[in-house]
């Protein structure tokens, strides 16, 4: 199984940084999608850990790399990495579908 990379998944699904749009527009799209993904990760953690662990995560998010903070807090959750990866893949795909539907409805 290939290692999941959220950055690459976002770029691939939204066709970012392929010279199809100005770089500034791709940066804006990437930042927005990544922000939505971080929020979804927080929801996932909140559903799977105690309030104390959630508080610990919030403190760590300000001080260190978000990926490491999430992984450390989720260490005790069964199959957390696999479940989170699947959830994020689905989430990004749904964001793409929603954006395509909105674009289609504007026409």
Structural class estimated from helices and strands: mainly alpha
Total of domains: 1
Q: Report Rg.
A: 16 Å
State the low-pLDDT regions, or none: none
Number of helices: 5
Calculate the mean pLDDT score and round it: 90
Largest sheet: none
Helices and strands, in N-to-C order? HHHHH
Distance between the termini: 40 Å
Bin the strand percentage.
under 5%
Helix content: over 70%
> What form results from the Cα inertia axes?
elongated
Count the E strands. 0
What does this structure look like?
It is a single chain. The protein is elongated. It is mainly alpha-helical and 107 residues long. The chain is built from five helices and no strands. Helices cover 77% and strands 0% of the residues. α3 packs antiparallel against α4. It has one domain.
Outline of the structure:
By secondary structure, the chain is mainly α. The protein has helices at residues 6-13, 23-48, 51-63, 66-73, 80-106.
């Amino acid at each position: 199984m290939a290692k999941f990379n959220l950055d690459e998944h976002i770029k691939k699904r939204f066709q970012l940084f392929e010279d199809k749009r100005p770089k500034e527009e791709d940066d804006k799209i990437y930042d927005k999608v990544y922000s939505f993904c971080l929020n979804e990760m927080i929801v996932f953690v909140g559903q799977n850990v105690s309030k104390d662990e959630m508080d610990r995560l919030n403190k760590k998010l300000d001080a260190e790399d978000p990926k490491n903070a999430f992984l450390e807090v989720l260490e005790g959750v069964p199959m957390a990495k696999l479940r989170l990866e699947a959830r994020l893949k689905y989430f990004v795909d749904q964001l793409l579908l929603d954006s395509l539907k909105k674009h289609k409805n504007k026409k």
